[in-house]
């Protein structure tokens, strides 16, 4: 269990900026950030007009940082992740990975989706081996690498199992092993645990933290679950909605591995939830009173997310 630390270890970056520029511990001077998102805006055309999803998003992620993006359902988290992955084009702005501009998908950035997206016709080890063929690994190298990463997610005993024989949590662990086997520069995770039960999520939070401690991969993780973000992240970025903008950032300086049920994790989650309340209220107002909402006229007349699912786990 992590040792108890005080609430002072949750650092509001706006305060840090105001108090002391030197304290911005997420900045490493003289080194390219692993990821730079610069002035990204994105809109979609709907039958009622243009719908602005993201507006002037700027963020930097350093090598080895674990960053969570949190925001209400429909605020543009997946759109932002897809732009970083190169799966979606922004209207304006640029994304840089190290010193190259991102123009499309690349094996340096591997995405893990909400559903594991494994190949059902391949067994577990062959799923993990799959991408390695494209990287030019021979048969033996593929097998050894796949088994190394299956061991990391504690699934080597299931290497010959078929995908349909696995639980949801096991499938996500295979997806993580498959992503890590590619040795990407960055893992992009889009609510990968949101369809799992609370107990499985708790186990996977612990496992992902241990994997991160071993590999120190740069991770950009999207979630609507604040407690999950506090449990996992070095830094939490809060997105507002309609359009999505960066509202606030927090550094979480709690020792790892953290436990979902730890008193500090709960306390930090409550504090961040307060920051998000205004955003949740905005979404709720829009959903409950779509006919008379004047704040986001275009958005309210277009299709809305089915529910406001922010704040799970608090
Ligand atoms: N391809 C698309 N065409 C039109 N609207 C889209 C498209 N992709 C996403 N949207 C809309 O953009 C908004 C943000 O979506 P998304 O990024 O999936 O939000 P989040 O992941 O935060 O729930 C939603 O209202 C969604 O309906
Ligand atoms: Mg999403």
Q: What can you tell me about this protein's structure?
A:
By secondary structure, this protein is of the alpha/beta class. It has one domain: Rossmann fold, CATH 3.40.50. It is 35% helix and 22% strand. It contains 9 helices and 11 strands. It has helices at residues 13-19, 77-85, 124-134, 139-152, 168-181, 198-215, 226-232, 263-288, 297-301; strands spanning 10-12, 35-46, 49-61, 66-70, 92-97, 100-101, 109-112, 186-190, 218-223, 235-239, 246-252. The strands form 2 sheets. The chain has a 7-stranded mixed sheet, sandwiched between helices. Strands 3-2-5-6 form a 4-stranded antiparallel sheet, covered by helices on one side. α6 links the parallel β8 and β9 (218-223). α3 (124-134) packs parallel to α5 and α4 (139-152) packs across α5. The longest helix is centred in the last third of the chain and has 26 residues, at 263-288. The radius of gyration is 20 Å and the shape is globular. The two termini are 20 Å apart. Mean pLDDT is 85; it is low at 1-5, 15-27 and 297-314. The structure holds adenosine-5'-diphosphate (ADP) and magnesium ion (MG). Magnesium ion binds at residues 77-78, 191.
């Amino acid at each position: 269990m992590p040792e108890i630390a005080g609430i002072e270890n949750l650092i509001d970056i706006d305060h840090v900026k105001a108090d002391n520029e030197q304290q911005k511990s997420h900045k490493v001077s003289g080194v390219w950030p692993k990821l730079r998102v610069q002035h990204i805006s994105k809109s979609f055309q709907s039958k009622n007009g243009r719908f602005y999803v993201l507006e002037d998003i700027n963020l930097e992620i350093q090598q080895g940082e674990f960053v969570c993006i949190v925001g209400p359902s429909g605020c543009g988290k997946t759109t932002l992740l897809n732009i970083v992955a190169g799966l979606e084009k922004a209207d304006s702005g640029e994304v840089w990975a190290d010193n190259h501009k991102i123009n499309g998908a690349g094996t340096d950035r591997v995405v893990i989706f909400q559903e594991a997206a494994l190949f059902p016709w391949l067994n577990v080890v062959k799923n993990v081996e799959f991408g390695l063929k494209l990287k030019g690994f021979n048969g033996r190298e593929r097998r050894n690498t796949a088994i190394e990463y299956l061991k990391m997610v504690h699934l080597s005993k299931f290497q010959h199992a078929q995908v349909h024989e696995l639980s949801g949590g096991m499938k996500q662990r295979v997806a993580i092993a498959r992503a890590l086997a590619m040795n990407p520069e960055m893992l992009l995770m889009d609510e990968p645990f949101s369809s799992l039960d609370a107990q499985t999520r708790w186990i996977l939070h612990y496992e992902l933290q241990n994997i991160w401690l071993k590999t120190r991969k740069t991770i950009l993780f999207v979630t609507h679950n604040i407690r999950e973000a506090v449990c996992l992240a070095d830094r939490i970025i809060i997105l507002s909605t309609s359009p999505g903008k960066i509202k606030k950032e927090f550094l979480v300086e709690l020792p790892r591995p953290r436990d979902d049920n730890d008193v500090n994790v709960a306390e930090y989650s409550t504090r961040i939830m307060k920051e998000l309340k205004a955003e949740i209220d905005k979404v709720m107002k829009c959903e409950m009173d779509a006919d008379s909402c004047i704040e986001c006229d275009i958005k309210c007349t277009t299709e809305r997310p089915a529910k406001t699912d922010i704040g799970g786990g608090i």
